[in-house]
Amino acid sequence: MNLAAANSDPASHGAWLARRPALLGAWCAVAAFGAYGCMYAFRKPFTAGGYGTGNFPAGFKTWLVLAQVLGYTLAKFAGIRVIAELPAGRRAATLLSLIGAAMAGLLILALAPAPWCLAGLFLNGLALGLVYGLVVGFLEGRRMTEALVAGLCASFILADGFTKSVGAWLLQAGVSEPWMPLVAGALFVAPLLVFVAMLQAIPMPTAAEVADRTERVPLGAAERRRWFRRHGYGLVAIVAAYVLVTILRSLRADFAPEIWAGLGAPAAPGVFTSSELFVALGVLAGNACLVWVRDHRRAFFLGLLLAIGGVALLPLALFSQQRGWLGTFPFMVWVGLGLYLPYVAVHTTIFERLIAMTRERGNLGYLMYLADAFGYLGYLAVLVFKNWGTGRVNAAGLFLTAGWAAGLASLVALTAAFIFFARRPAALRVAEATFAPATSPT
Q1: What is the rounded distance in angstroms from the CA atom of residue 333 to the CA atom of residue 329?
Q2: Structure confidence by residue, pLDDT tens digits, 265-301
Q3: Residue 439 lies in a domain
Q4: Distance CA 32, CA 264 (A)
Q5: Please, which pLDDT band fits residue 243 given cuts at 50, 70 and 90?
């Protein structure tokens, strides 16, 4: 497919797909699942290594994780503006440029000695932190958005485990730790190009979908401020819970080998994939079914209830593990469900239906990057505390302690958000009369 021609007129994309609704849904799901899953091959395989390089406080792997997360966090803050304002026609080319920059970062990691190789993972995180918003932009504002984004989220749940397994297998095959992340990413370049071409072919939402869910448009600074003024208290509560879930989810992802070992069950390479498969299936089933709820207000509150139910699993799983009722594998699966159910509900339903319910101009990119920016900033703070705070703790100990705190505090925050939005139905409906529909597609 011709990137330049397609980018010049996004409204002309995929007319042949638009005439085949059944094929369109499957096409969107496969394209998004594949593109974002391939992106993880440039982000996560390095975490399968030990990186015992030199004499670094807290271990060199911690510094590598910190460098990547720092870049990723800065990208999320930049994305509040960049993704919110990016026209649809530039998404595919921007995505490929970012992947190229991420690979350049992995090349620096392979070639540069410590500590200079940290710059490579910083660049890698800075590039990859913008990819999610680009992919979501192809999927939002459609009647099947929840199912499509649930599939997208399932891709990063599965890809997180699968790409770590790929990294572990490459190490066992004799690839050195510095080169392993670049080799792992290179294996996924060809399929990534195919999936990005598929994304590019997706047509714009139909007129009926625009009428139902509102037209998604770039969002300027004044409009972003207006969004926050109108829904600030509810957004703050949702974002607070999202921050806590992001911190624990990231700990579980980046230090999976250390957490499994700390729980008394060192993980073989394939266990990362098998555990996340159960998590992905449960999360996909729980979130995708909300696509059948046509009423946006009802779907919004069902999404909040699903998130509340998810975080309630965290203290339940921790209590059962401490009592000896759960082995390490089922415990990690249950905690994964408790983390990803609310995490994905925010991605798939809560913000999508909030836009549709209020009828306000906007796009998912702004809301998601607002949440992600503070989520990864919180994770950075926890990484610093873990390794340089008073009384250093190991990954497993920190994970268990943070699990109790994140689970209980998230329950409170999400319940507060539910009450806030439930008590102001008139304020939510007024936007339909206040904000005129947008006139240009994203």
Answers
A1: 6
A2: 776 667 777 888 888 888 888 887 888 888 999 999 9
A3: no
A4: 36
A5: very high
Is 16 part of any domain?
A: yes
CATH number for the domain that contains residue 373? 1.20.1250.20
Look-up: residue for tokens 């913008």? Answer: 130
CB–CB of 106/182 below 8 Å? yes
User: Would you state the pLDDT for residue 57?
Assistant: 62
Is pLDDT of 103 > 90? yes
Q: Which residues pair with 216 in a beta bridge?
A: 362
29 within a domain of the structure (yes/no): yes
Query: Tokens in use for 138?
Result: 């192809």
Q: How many domains does the chain have?
A: 1
Tell me if 441 is assigned to some domain: no
Q: Are 138 and 31 in contact (CB under 8 A)?
A: yes
Is the distance from CB of 72 to CB of 383 less than 8 angstroms?
no
Give the best-scoring range by mean pLDDT among 12-16, 50-54, 245-249.
Answer: 245-249
Q: Is the peptide bond before 115 cis (omega within 30 degrees of 0)?
A: yes
Nearest to 243 by CA among 353, 363, 405, 75: 405
Tokens 């849904």, residue located: 25
The three-class DSSP label of residue 362 is strand
When pLDDT is cut at 50, 70 and 90, the band that residue 88 belongs to is: confident
- How many Cα atoms within 13 Å fall on the side-chain side of residue 399? 26
Element (H, E) at 381: helix 364-388
- Residue that the structure tokens 């401490």 belong to: 322
Whole-structure pTM value: 0.78
Residue 259 CB-density burial (10 A; 0-12 exposed, 13-18 middle, 19+ buried): buried
Residue 22's domain comprises 3-434
